[in-house]
Write a structure and sequence with these properties.
Blueprint (H helix, E strand, L loop, with lengths): L1 H23 L4 H21 L5 H29 L1 H16 L14 H15 L2 H7 L1 H32 L2 H43 L4 H13 L6 H14 L2 H32 L3 H15 L3 H26 L6
Length: about 350
């Protein structure tokens, strides 16, 4: 037992230093987590390419491909926003005039938020969807730094990930190595299903939002559906942002029927139901964890860790429960008696 304790000292020191590094580099943690997690998901592709190319060349090609995919997505998104700039101007302008009217009392409509807070949220939405070029220009340095960290983490983990994994495994104490080897495939499966489900729900949101906006009768059905799907694709936003925004527009117009359609069919059915039921069920089924527990991990991660929590929240839940299962299986094997 004393031998195991001595072996644990270097591991504990590295763990403490890792926690300190996470605290110091916390503002960039989201980009490191996202870049590293996508690298883990795409590592099988890198391994196949490395059979025909040098590992560095393979990693560079995948990095360029990822950059091209993200750039194309952003280009299409900005083009759609620019094409529908008039719709967005009318939407935000109508809501802004409604809030600026002294006779408007948000509390009369059951909105337990101060007028100033609503105006602040509206300004943030306007900066994101209408004045996006101003927002990009004002934060250009930070965006470039985060992009470098993101793609750098992705590239480095592809090139050095296997060596880092093997080196860590060789220096771990035997009790820890057992968990390390068994948790690795679970981690890969969890990351894979997180990204697949995220894209699948965004696509699903687009199609099931179409009949909602058709019933709403405001026109621009495909654009509003795209807006909901785009918001859903970004974990820290979610499609609920789009439905709340268009619902506020309906409220500013005095269209209470539209408000009910957007709240019941839009917010509850299209937005909340996939987050509360579909996503936890799909992720939990893959990693064999109850959907309620997975829902807590997903929402808790986003609320406490922001964008990084989109990955770390469910991953931490999965690793904790799988570690507990490994521990209980070990004790059952050591004590197979009926009362164990």
């Amino acid at each position: 037992m004393a031998r195991i304790d001595r072996d644990m000292y270097p591991f504990l020191i590295v763990l403490i230093l890792t926690l300190i590094a996470l605290a110091v580099f916390w503002p960039m943690l989201d980009m490191v987590v996202l870049g590293g997690s996508i690298a883990v998901v795409l590592f099988p592709v890198h391994r196949r390419l490395s059979q025909h190319l040098r590992p560095g060349v393979s990693a560079a090609l995948l990095t360029v491909a990822l950059f091209a995919a993200i750039a194309a997505t952003l280009f299409v998104t900005l083009a759609i926003l620019r094409e529908n700039a008039g719709v967005l101007d009318e939407l935000f302008g109508t809501i802004g005039n409604w809030l600026a009217n002294p006779a408007t009392q948000p509390g009369a409509f059951g909105i337990p938020v101060a007028r100033e807070t609503l105006a602040s949220w509206l300004a943030k939405g306007n900066a994101l969807f209408v004045n996006y070029w101003v927002t990009i220009t004002a934060n250009l340095t930070l965006i470039i730094i985060k992009a470098v960290v993101f793609f750098g983490s992705f590239f480095l983990l592809l090139v050095k990930g296997r060596n880092i994994y093997d080196r860590i495994g060789r220096h771990l104490p035997e009790p820890v190595r057992v968990y390390y080897d068994q948790l690795t495939p679970v981690t890969v499966d969890t990351l894979y299903v997180i990204y697949v489900v995220q894209i699948a729900i965004a696509v699903l949101t687009f199609f099931i939002a179409i009949p909602v906006f058709y019933l709403l009768g405001y026109g621009n059905i495909l654009f509003y559906s795209f807006l909901a799907a785009f918001c859903e694709l970004i974990p820290i936003l979610g499609s609920s942002v789009a439905f709340i925004l268009i619902g506020a527009y309906a409220l500013a117009l005095g269209d209470m029927q539209g408000v009910l359609i957007l709240f019941i069919l839009g917010y509850i059915v299209v937005s909340a139901l996939p987050e509360i039921y579909v996503r936890p069920v799909l992720v939990g089924r893959r990693v064999k964890i109850h959907p309620v527990i997975m829902f807590i991990g997903i929402i808790g991660g986003l609320l406490t860790l922001g964008l990084a929590g989109f990955v770390l929240g469910p991953l931490i839940i999965v690793l904790l429960l799988r570690s507990y299962r490994i521990w209980t299986d070990e004790h059952k094997a050591q004590d197979p008696s009926p009362g164990a």
